[in-house]
Design goal:
It is built from 1 helix and 11 strands; from the N terminus they run ββββββββββαβ. The protein is mainly beta and about 120 residues long.
Length: about 120
């Protein structure tokens, strides 16, 4: 079964077949969440949620307001990998899987940059 993995240098952290990637915009302080699924074809974006708009964090045109978040279900082809950068000037990425959420610095060395999100077995 394919699972998502975080890779930073020689360190690999297996996540799960379904996981959430979340972050807070550095200027607008707007929460963004993406639900991903690892498949044989790659990483599939199942749902994205954004708490508001501003400074390039606009909800997609088809998004529907559900509670505090605009929710959409994009139809994009699977991605082979996603490159995550960590500047240290903003809050770290958050990764949720198997019923818990973790700051990326709890899973990988705090100074690991870049981090690749990919599919592994």
């Amino acid at each position: 079964m394919a699972v998502g993995c975080l890779v930073a240098g020689a360190v690999t952290v297996k996540l799960a077949s379904a996981f959430t990637l979340a972050w807070t915009h550095s200027v607008e302080r707007i929460e963004w969440q993406e639900d991903w699924r690892a498949s044989e074809a790659g990483l599939v974006l199942a749902e994205e949620r954004v708490q508001g708009s501003g400074a390039g964090m606009e909800p997609p045109p088809d998004a529907v307001l559900e509670g505090d978040f605009y929710v959409s279900h994009p139809n994009r082809p699977p991605l082979r990998e996603i490159l995550l950068r960590r500047s240290g000037a903003t809050a770290d990425w958050r990764v949720c899987f198997d019923g818990g959420c973790h700051v990326m610095g709890d899973l990988l060395p705090p100074d690991a940059d870049p981090v690749t999100l990919t599919v592994c077995d």
